[in-house]
Amino acid sequence: MLKGKDLLSIHDLSVDEVNEILALAHDLKAKQKAGIEHHLLKGKTLGMIFEKSSTRTRLSFETGMYQLGGQALFLSNRDLQLGRGEPIKDTARVMSRYLDGIMIRTFGHDRVEEFAEWSDVPVINALTDLLHPCQVLTDLLTIQEHKGKNLKGLKMAYVGDGNNMTNSFMYGCAKAGINFVAATPEDYKPDMQVFANAVEDAKETGATIELVTDPFEAAKGADIVVTDTWASMGQEAEHDERKKIFKDYQVNADLLKQADKRVIVMHCLPAYRGEEITDEIMEAYADVIFDEAENRLHTQKAIMALLMGDY
Ligand code: CP
Ligand code: NVA
Q: Which atom of ligand 1 is nearest to the CA of 127?
Protein backbone atom coordinates (compact mmCIF):
# COMPACT_ATOMS: atom_id res chain seq x y z
CA MET A 1 0.00 0.00 0.00
CA LEU A 2 2.77 2.40 0.93
CA LYS A 3 5.43 1.12 -1.46
CA GLY A 4 7.06 3.94 -3.43
CA LYS A 5 5.18 6.71 -1.59
CA ASP A 6 6.55 9.62 0.42
CA LEU A 7 5.85 10.21 4.10
CA LEU A 8 5.59 13.95 4.55
CA SER A 9 2.56 14.16 6.85
CA ILE A 10 0.27 11.78 8.77
CA HIS A 11 -2.58 13.67 7.09
CA ASP A 12 -1.62 11.95 3.80
CA LEU A 13 -1.89 8.45 5.33
CA SER A 14 -5.12 6.47 5.52
CA VAL A 15 -6.21 5.00 8.86
CA ASP A 16 -5.26 1.56 7.47
CA GLU A 17 -1.80 2.79 6.50
CA VAL A 18 -1.21 4.18 10.01
CA ASN A 19 -2.24 0.82 11.45
CA GLU A 20 -0.02 -1.02 8.96
CA ILE A 21 3.02 1.03 10.06
CA LEU A 22 2.25 0.39 13.75
CA ALA A 23 1.71 -3.35 13.22
CA LEU A 24 5.00 -3.77 11.34
CA ALA A 25 6.82 -1.65 13.97
CA HIS A 26 5.61 -3.99 16.75
CA ASP A 27 6.68 -6.98 14.64
CA LEU A 28 10.15 -5.59 13.85
CA LYS A 29 10.69 -4.63 17.49
CA ALA A 30 9.86 -8.19 18.58
CA LYS A 31 12.16 -9.63 15.89
CA GLN A 32 15.04 -7.39 16.90
CA LYS A 33 14.63 -8.26 20.60
CA ALA A 34 14.54 -11.98 19.71
CA GLY A 35 17.59 -11.70 17.48
CA ILE A 36 15.64 -12.77 14.37
CA GLU A 37 17.14 -11.45 11.15
CA HIS A 38 14.93 -8.97 9.28
CA HIS A 39 16.98 -7.75 6.33
CA LEU A 40 14.04 -6.19 4.52
CA LEU A 41 16.19 -3.52 2.83
CA LYS A 42 19.26 -5.56 1.92
CA GLY A 43 21.58 -3.60 -0.37
CA LYS A 44 19.50 -0.41 -0.18
CA THR A 45 20.79 3.05 0.71
CA LEU A 46 19.04 5.89 2.53
CA GLY A 47 20.32 9.47 2.15
CA MET A 48 19.82 11.57 5.28
CA ILE A 49 19.83 15.34 4.81
CA PHE A 50 20.13 17.32 8.03
CA GLU A 51 19.70 21.09 7.90
CA LYS A 52 19.01 21.10 11.69
CA SER A 53 20.61 19.26 14.64
CA SER A 54 19.56 15.82 15.82
CA THR A 55 20.44 13.08 18.28
CA ARG A 56 17.58 10.57 18.08
CA THR A 57 16.65 11.02 14.44
CA ARG A 58 20.12 10.45 13.05
CA LEU A 59 20.86 7.55 15.38
CA SER A 60 17.56 5.78 14.77
CA PHE A 61 17.49 6.14 10.97
CA GLU A 62 21.15 5.20 10.59
CA THR A 63 21.00 2.22 12.96
CA GLY A 64 17.64 1.22 11.52
CA MET A 65 18.97 0.99 7.98
CA TYR A 66 21.91 -1.09 9.20
CA GLN A 67 19.57 -3.49 11.04
CA LEU A 68 17.44 -3.80 7.89
CA GLY A 69 20.50 -4.90 5.92
CA GLY A 70 21.07 -1.59 4.15
CA GLN A 71 23.13 1.50 4.81
CA ALA A 72 22.58 5.20 5.46
CA LEU A 73 24.55 8.27 4.40
CA PHE A 74 24.66 11.28 6.74
CA LEU A 75 24.63 14.49 4.71
CA SER A 76 24.75 17.83 6.48
CA ASN A 77 24.36 21.13 4.69
CA ARG A 78 28.12 21.51 4.85
CA ASP A 79 28.57 18.30 2.85
CA LEU A 80 26.07 19.05 0.12
CA GLN A 81 26.13 21.61 -2.69
CA LEU A 82 22.55 22.28 -1.51
CA GLY A 83 24.17 24.30 1.29
CA ARG A 84 25.91 26.43 -1.37
CA GLY A 85 22.71 27.09 -3.27
CA GLU A 86 22.28 24.14 -5.67
CA PRO A 87 18.51 24.06 -6.31
CA ILE A 88 16.36 21.47 -4.55
CA LYS A 89 14.95 20.31 -7.87
CA ASP A 90 18.43 19.43 -9.15
CA THR A 91 19.61 17.89 -5.87
CA ALA A 92 16.49 15.73 -5.63
CA ARG A 93 16.85 14.40 -9.18
CA VAL A 94 20.56 13.65 -8.71
CA MET A 95 20.12 11.94 -5.36
CA SER A 96 17.27 9.82 -6.75
CA ARG A 97 19.74 8.31 -9.25
CA TYR A 98 21.90 6.86 -6.43
CA LEU A 99 19.62 6.27 -3.48
CA ASP A 100 16.58 4.14 -2.59
CA GLY A 101 15.10 6.65 -0.15
CA ILE A 102 15.78 10.12 1.21
CA MET A 103 15.15 11.46 4.70
CA ILE A 104 15.11 15.22 5.28
CA ARG A 105 15.16 17.38 8.42
CA THR A 106 14.82 21.05 7.57
CA PHE A 107 13.12 24.37 8.31
CA GLY A 108 10.30 25.24 5.87
CA HIS A 109 7.86 22.41 5.10
CA ASP A 110 7.81 23.64 1.50
CA ARG A 111 11.42 22.44 1.13
CA VAL A 112 10.43 18.84 1.85
CA GLU A 113 7.41 19.13 -0.43
CA GLU A 114 9.55 20.49 -3.27
CA PHE A 115 12.13 17.76 -2.72
CA ALA A 116 9.44 15.07 -2.86
CA GLU A 117 7.98 16.57 -6.03
CA TRP A 118 11.31 16.15 -7.85
CA SER A 119 12.52 12.93 -6.24
CA ASP A 120 11.87 9.57 -7.89
CA VAL A 121 12.47 7.69 -4.63
CA PRO A 122 10.46 7.92 -1.38
CA VAL A 123 11.06 11.03 0.73
CA ILE A 124 10.56 10.91 4.51
CA ASN A 125 9.96 14.05 6.58
CA ALA A 126 12.24 13.84 9.62
CA LEU A 127 10.97 17.18 11.02
CA THR A 128 10.09 20.52 9.53
CA ASP A 129 8.93 23.70 11.23
CA LEU A 130 5.38 22.47 10.52
CA LEU A 131 5.39 18.71 11.20
CA HIS A 132 7.24 15.80 12.83
CA PRO A 133 5.31 12.73 11.61
CA CYS A 134 7.91 10.03 12.46
CA GLN A 135 7.90 11.15 16.09
CA VAL A 136 4.12 11.09 16.42
CA LEU A 137 3.80 7.66 14.76
CA THR A 138 6.42 6.52 17.29
CA ASP A 139 4.35 8.01 20.08
CA LEU A 140 1.29 6.06 18.93
CA LEU A 141 3.34 2.85 19.08
CA THR A 142 4.52 3.76 22.60
CA ILE A 143 0.96 4.51 23.76
CA GLN A 144 -0.13 1.10 22.41
CA GLU A 145 2.61 -0.56 24.47
CA HIS A 146 1.60 1.25 27.65
CA LYS A 147 -2.18 1.54 27.22
CA GLY A 148 -3.15 -1.35 24.93
CA LYS A 149 -3.50 -1.67 21.17
CA ASN A 150 -6.94 -0.05 20.95
CA LEU A 151 -6.26 3.69 21.09
CA LYS A 152 -9.84 4.78 20.41
CA GLY A 153 -11.38 6.91 23.15
CA LEU A 154 -8.16 7.67 25.04
CA LYS A 155 -7.62 11.32 25.97
CA MET A 156 -4.32 13.07 25.20
CA ALA A 157 -3.55 16.52 26.64
CA TYR A 158 -0.71 18.53 25.09
CA VAL A 159 0.55 21.45 27.19
CA GLY A 160 2.95 24.11 25.92
CA ASP A 161 3.88 25.67 22.57
CA GLY A 162 1.67 25.04 19.55
CA ASN A 163 4.48 23.73 17.34
CA ASN A 164 5.42 20.99 14.85
CA MET A 165 4.73 18.31 17.49
CA THR A 166 1.29 19.75 18.30
CA ASN A 167 0.44 19.86 14.61
CA SER A 168 1.48 16.26 14.07
CA PHE A 169 -0.34 15.13 17.22
CA MET A 170 -3.56 16.59 15.82
CA TYR A 171 -3.12 14.52 12.66
CA GLY A 172 -1.97 11.40 14.51
CA CYS A 173 -4.75 11.46 17.09
CA ALA A 174 -7.37 12.09 14.40
CA LYS A 175 -6.26 8.92 12.57
CA ALA A 176 -5.88 6.85 15.76
CA GLY A 177 -9.20 7.90 17.34
CA ILE A 178 -7.54 9.58 20.34
CA ASN A 179 -9.38 12.59 21.77
CA PHE A 180 -6.83 15.38 21.65
CA VAL A 181 -6.75 18.72 23.43
CA ALA A 182 -3.89 21.22 23.29
CA ALA A 183 -3.50 23.97 25.89
CA THR A 184 -1.32 26.80 24.60
CA PRO A 185 -1.18 30.55 25.17
CA GLU A 186 -3.62 32.39 22.89
CA ASP A 187 -0.86 33.66 20.55
CA TYR A 188 0.95 30.31 20.35
CA LYS A 189 -1.76 28.05 19.01
CA PRO A 190 -0.85 25.33 16.50
CA ASP A 191 -1.34 25.81 12.77
CA MET A 192 -4.99 26.61 12.02
CA GLN A 193 -5.01 24.89 8.62
CA VAL A 194 -3.64 21.72 10.22
CA PHE A 195 -6.29 22.04 12.95
CA ALA A 196 -9.07 22.31 10.35
CA ASN A 197 -7.72 19.33 8.39
CA ALA A 198 -7.38 17.26 11.57
CA VAL A 199 -10.96 18.03 12.65
CA GLU A 200 -12.05 16.81 9.21
CA ASP A 201 -9.83 13.66 9.41
CA ALA A 202 -11.17 12.90 12.90
CA LYS A 203 -14.69 12.38 11.54
CA GLU A 204 -13.59 8.95 10.30
CA THR A 205 -12.54 7.72 13.76
CA GLY A 206 -14.89 9.81 15.91
CA ALA A 207 -11.99 11.52 17.71
CA THR A 208 -12.30 15.08 19.03
CA ILE A 209 -9.59 17.70 18.40
CA GLU A 210 -9.74 20.76 20.64
CA LEU A 211 -7.68 23.87 21.38
CA VAL A 212 -7.87 25.64 24.74
CA THR A 213 -5.68 28.05 26.74
CA ASP A 214 -6.07 26.54 30.25
CA PRO A 215 -3.61 23.68 30.91
CA PHE A 216 -5.64 22.45 33.90
CA GLU A 217 -8.77 22.18 31.78
CA ALA A 218 -6.81 20.22 29.16
CA ALA A 219 -5.26 17.81 31.68
CA LYS A 220 -8.59 16.90 33.29
CA GLY A 221 -9.01 13.11 33.12
CA ALA A 222 -6.20 12.76 30.55
CA ASP A 223 -4.75 9.29 29.90
CA ILE A 224 -1.66 10.82 28.27
CA VAL A 225 -0.06 14.19 29.07
CA VAL A 226 2.55 15.39 26.62
CA THR A 227 4.72 18.43 26.17
CA ASP A 228 7.64 19.70 24.10
CA THR A 229 10.25 22.45 24.29
CA TRP A 230 8.99 26.03 24.56
CA ALA A 231 11.56 27.15 21.95
CA SER A 232 11.97 24.91 18.93
CA MET A 233 15.00 24.75 16.65
CA GLY A 234 15.24 28.11 14.88
CA GLN A 235 13.59 29.99 17.80
CA GLU A 236 16.68 30.12 20.05
CA ALA A 237 16.71 33.95 20.06
CA GLU A 238 13.19 33.97 21.57
CA HIS A 239 14.08 31.57 24.39
CA ASP A 240 14.16 34.10 27.26
CA GLU A 241 10.95 35.79 26.20
CA ARG A 242 9.24 32.42 25.73
CA LYS A 243 10.26 31.31 29.24
CA LYS A 244 8.09 34.13 30.62
CA ILE A 245 5.17 33.55 28.25
CA PHE A 246 4.98 29.78 28.87
CA LYS A 247 5.68 29.67 32.62
CA ASP A 248 2.14 28.44 33.41
CA TYR A 249 2.37 25.70 30.77
CA GLN A 250 4.66 23.33 32.64
CA VAL A 251 4.02 19.61 33.14
CA ASN A 252 4.48 19.24 36.90
CA ALA A 253 3.00 17.31 39.84
CA ASP A 254 0.27 19.89 40.38
CA LEU A 255 -0.95 19.70 36.78
CA LEU A 256 -0.94 15.90 36.84
CA LYS A 257 -3.38 15.87 39.78
CA GLN A 258 -6.01 16.74 37.17
CA ALA A 259 -5.20 13.70 35.03
CA ASP A 260 -6.38 10.10 35.23
CA LYS A 261 -4.66 8.11 38.01
CA ARG A 262 -2.95 5.86 35.47
CA VAL A 263 -1.77 8.77 33.30
CA ILE A 264 1.44 8.43 31.31
CA VAL A 265 3.65 11.42 30.50
CA MET A 266 5.46 11.65 27.18
CA HIS A 267 8.13 13.91 25.71
CA CYS A 268 9.78 13.60 22.30
CA LEU A 269 13.07 14.99 23.74
CA PRO A 270 15.27 16.93 24.03
CA ALA A 271 13.68 18.08 27.30
CA TYR A 272 14.46 21.26 29.20
CA ARG A 273 13.94 20.40 32.86
CA GLY A 274 12.51 23.24 34.91
CA GLU A 275 10.90 24.72 31.80
CA GLU A 276 8.21 22.65 30.00
CA ILE A 277 8.60 19.73 32.45
CA THR A 278 10.01 19.32 35.96
CA ASP A 279 12.94 17.02 36.69
CA GLU A 280 10.68 15.12 39.12
CA ILE A 281 8.10 14.31 36.44
CA MET A 282 10.75 13.49 33.81
CA GLU A 283 12.26 10.93 36.16
CA ALA A 284 8.90 9.57 37.36
CA TYR A 285 7.90 8.75 33.76
CA ALA A 286 11.38 7.91 32.47
CA ASP A 287 10.29 4.36 31.56
CA VAL A 288 7.72 5.68 29.08
CA ILE A 289 9.85 8.58 27.81
CA PHE A 290 12.89 6.44 27.02
CA ASP A 291 10.71 3.70 25.47
CA GLU A 292 9.43 6.53 23.29
CA ALA A 293 12.99 7.43 22.30
CA GLU A 294 13.85 3.79 21.54
CA ASN A 295 10.69 3.35 19.50
CA ARG A 296 11.88 5.87 16.92
CA LEU A 297 14.11 3.02 15.73
CA HIS A 298 11.34 0.45 15.37
CA THR A 299 8.76 2.81 13.87
CA GLN A 300 11.13 4.24 11.28
CA LYS A 301 12.32 0.76 10.32
CA ALA A 302 8.69 -0.07 9.61
CA ILE A 303 8.21 3.15 7.62
CA MET A 304 11.36 2.56 5.55
CA ALA A 305 10.53 -1.11 4.93
CA LEU A 306 7.02 -0.21 3.72
CA LEU A 307 8.10 2.74 1.55
CA MET A 308 11.39 1.40 0.19
CA GLY A 309 10.99 -2.38 0.40
CA ASP A 310 9.09 -5.04 -1.51
CA TYR A 311 5.88 -5.09 0.53
N1 CP B 1 12.79 13.83 19.09
C2 CP B 1 13.71 14.10 18.14
O3 CP B 1 13.41 14.23 16.96
O4 CP B 1 15.00 14.19 18.61
P5 CP B 1 16.28 14.72 17.81
O6 CP B 1 16.06 16.18 17.53
O7 CP B 1 17.42 14.46 18.73
O8 CP B 1 16.40 13.95 16.53
N1 NVA C 1 9.60 21.15 18.51
C2 NVA C 1 10.96 20.68 18.58
C3 NVA C 1 11.02 19.19 18.38
C4 NVA C 1 12.40 18.61 18.50
C5 NVA C 1 12.43 17.14 18.24
C6 NVA C 1 11.80 21.40 17.53
O7 NVA C 1 11.34 21.56 16.40
O8 NVA C 1 12.90 21.80 17.85
A: 3
pTM of the model: 0.98
- Is the pLDDT reported for residue 311 higher than 80? no
Domain boundaries, the chain: 10-132+296-308, 135-292
Average pLDDT estimate for 279-288? 98
Taking the C-alpha atoms of residue 195 and residue 171, their distance in angstroms, rounded to an integer, is 8
Q: Which CATH number applies to 10-132+296-308?
A: 3.40.50.1370
Q: Tens digit of pLDDT for each residue in 119-160?
A: 999 999 999 999 999 999 999 999 999 999 999 999 999 999
* Structure confidence by residue, pLDDT tens digits, 39-68: 999 999 999 999 999 999 999 999 999 999
Q: How far apart are CA 218 and CA 184, in angstroms?
A: 10
Q: Which fold has domain 135-292?
A: Rossmann fold (3.40.50)
Please say if 135 is a catalytic residue.
Answer: yes
Q: For this structure, is 132 an active site residue?
A: yes
> Which ligand is closest in space to the CA of residue 53?
1
